[in-house]
């Protein structure tokens, strides 16, 4: 069973899959504590905020409520909601605090492509076919060996940046990691103008991809 904060269908707004229709499954719980996190309501698994399964089948806003779901119950819920998307994005919170292998396999058996959004602070336990996006949280919980496992498994590295220091930290982190076949993205933190300008400049220099959190400009979830 997985603690689910919200399930909704929208357009993937980040990374290489930007623009694709996607079902989002947001798992509750994260211990990393990024100061600029845009989903702080997912940090705590508060027993007082456990609700019935039907209540998480819509966007949460900022409440932080959650309910337990098995893989089969999630797939049944997608059907009951009439969702059409073929991409399922598992995010959080930090989804990799849970072993996601069985969930990925159950979704893939039903024909879904699975994408995982993770911080690299926990070992990545997913199916071989899952598209893993690592948004590395440097100098935070987890430690170097865990982060290296996540970076090596990553299909995509999507780094949130505001200042040059963040790019320098990423470069140091990626030393020794084989980037062949990895999609590289820079994502400006919180639509800050200077961050966006720096991300664009660096993406042009390096032939990387700009990820602007399209959903925030579109004012959708
Ligand atoms: C909310 S996190 C959940 C998944 C996982 N905990 C992680 O950090 O990758 C989803 C994505 O949003 C990014 N993010 C969170 N807050 C942001 C912000 N204020 N500006 C830009 N990106 C942000 C994260 O870096 C991550 O790529
Ligand atoms: N539309 C949309 N795209 C997203 N891509 C990653 C998201 C996330 O919160 O992990 C996210 C999200 O919250 N909404
Ligand atoms: S790791 Fe992800 S969910 Fe956790 S605080 Fe950082 S951005 Fe937010
Ligand atoms: Mg988000």
Automatic annotation (TrEMBL):
Complexes and interactors: Homodimer.
Binding-site list for S-adenosyl-L-methionine: 36-38, 93, 135-137
GO MF annotation list: 4 iron, 4 sulfur cluster binding; carbon-nitrogen lyase activity; magnesium ion binding; S-adenosyl-L-methionine binding
Enzyme class, UniProt record, top EC level: lyase
Domain of life: Bacteria
Annotated source species: Paraferrimonas haliotis
Entry note: cofactor: Binds 1 S-adenosyl-L-methionine per subunit.
Protein name, as recorded: 7-carboxy-7-deazaguanine synthase
Keyword 4Fe-4S: yes
Binding site for [4Fe-4S] cluster: 30, 34, 37
Transmembrane segments: none
Function: Catalyzes the complex heterocyclic radical-mediated conversion of 6-carboxy-5,6,7,8-tetrahydropterin (CPH4) to 7-carboxy-7-deazaguanine (CDG), a step common to the biosynthetic pathways of all 7-deazapurine-containing compounds.
Enzyme Commission code: 4.3.99.3
Family, per entry: Belongs to the radical SAM superfamily. 7-carboxy-7-deazaguanine synthase family.
Pathway: Purine metabolism; 7-cyano-7-deazaguanine biosynthesis
Residues in Radical SAM core domain copies: 17-221
Residues bound to substrate: 11-13, 26, 91
Keyword Transcription regulation annotated: no
Pfam name, any one: Radical_SAM
Cofactor (UniProt): S-adenosyl-L-methionine; [4Fe-4S] cluster; Mg(2+)
Binding-site residues for Mg(2+), renumbered to this chain: 39
